[in-house]
Amino acid sequence: MGTKGKMGQVYVKGMRIPVTKLSVGPSVVTQYKTQIKDGYWAMQLGFSEKKIKNISKPVLGHLKGATKNNKAPRFLREVRVDKEESINVGDQVKVSDIFRVGDIVSVRGLSKGKGFAGVVKRWHFAGGPKTHGQSDRQRAPGSIGQGTTPGRVLKGKRMAGRMGSDMVTLGGLHVISIDAEKGEMLVSGPVPGRSGGLLIIKKTSSGSLEELEQETVVQVVEGEKDEEEKSVVNKEEGNR
Fold first, then answer.
1. Is 232 part of a structural domain of the chain?
2. What does the angle CA 203 – CA 207 – CA 210 come to, to the nearest 5 degrees?
3. Average pLDDT of the residues in 53-74
């Protein structure tokens, strides 16, 4: 677990890469489940801090052994493991214990809430025509019910409503750098949510920054080709 920080940019062998800083402080083990007792191997991790006075007694009893300096973990999440691990309640899991520079990760978080939005902003509808006296139909959704069977509005119809505040997962992000002392990590590209929002970071595969460099070079070459094609089209239109 971690929290989202500010975005920035770094240079990897002369290539500029947009990055997002993640605060992945040490997580504390609050519970350990075994195959014999619970039917599977898993550990519960706690992240961030919260004052003990603001925690109910049942939860405080559950966190016994993981509290320190009158503070207890704020967020709790369970993580499955494949086999028995030599860990105890109260042990810390640092970012450097799991991730390495170049690893490919996926980040899951709650996206920003946009409030009530229309179909043009929410679903990218094109809107209606302005001609033939329809001056008020530019951002209208249009027909929402069929004139034939079943003759009703189907469930899941794309309409106006609340936008955002959804759980979003972004994959294919590379770990650019890791600061084990500060508990910070830089990943390539943007991540969902607001600054300070809770994120779940999962390692999908091991990799290297060379793969990221190749992807960046391909994107730059494709962008240059698009610009060349546009210039050729503009020249042809000018000649015509």
1. no
2. 140
3. 88
